[in-house]
Write a structure and sequence with these properties.
Elements (H helix, E strand, L loop, with lengths): L9 E10 L2 E10 L3 H8 L10 H4 L16 H77 L1
Antiparallel strand pairs: 1-2
Length: about 150
């Protein structure tokens, strides 16, 4: 749809696994490819205190020779765009899967902690009821023995 002109922009929205306990929602623009997002990676912009700035800044007004692509420019760009899109979607799915595993781990840890707390609470209630029953029996025995003495 983007290639046919039906869409102006394409975004990927996914959960980024920040760490095991935290995931953040990320919205990433995939198409059109913004030069600013890859400029530093490709060396198109100067970094702070860049000692190689003079070497990178060239006069591009005259190209010393023609650039030939083998195979054609269209097939190279088509291959590169497909590889870029596959990589972007694969990274988003991989990051989301890692976030999901972290969320599942946290949910299971919370369930285990709650179950352990419930077991200790029920043990306390059981021991309280048992102690009350024993105290009642002792009271009845002592009361019965006292009645026989009279």
């Amino acid at each position: 749809a983007y290639a046919e002109g039906k869409l102006d922009e394409v975004f990927i929205v996914y959960n980024h696994a920040k760490n095991a306990a935290e995931q953040t929602l990320v919205e990433q623009q995939v198409l059109p490819v913004k030069e600013e997002s890859y400029a530093e990676l490709l060396g198109l912009t100067a970094k702070e205190e860049d000692i190689f700035k003079s070497f990178r800044e060239k006069d591009d007004s005259s190209i010393p020779g023609d650039i030939d692509f083998e195979p054609s420019t269209e097939s190279v760009m088509s291959y590169m765009m497909n590889a870029y899109l596959n990589n972007a979607f694969y990274y988003a799915m991989l990051d989301s899967a890692a976030g999901e595993q972290g969320a599942r781990r946290n949910a299971m840890k919370s369930a285990t902690d709650n179950a352990n707390e419930m077991v200790s609470t029920l043990e306390r209630v059981y021991n309280t009821v048992r102690q009350g029953a024993i105290t009642t029996e002792i009271t009845e025995i002592v009361g019965g023995a006292a009645a026989l003495e009279d």
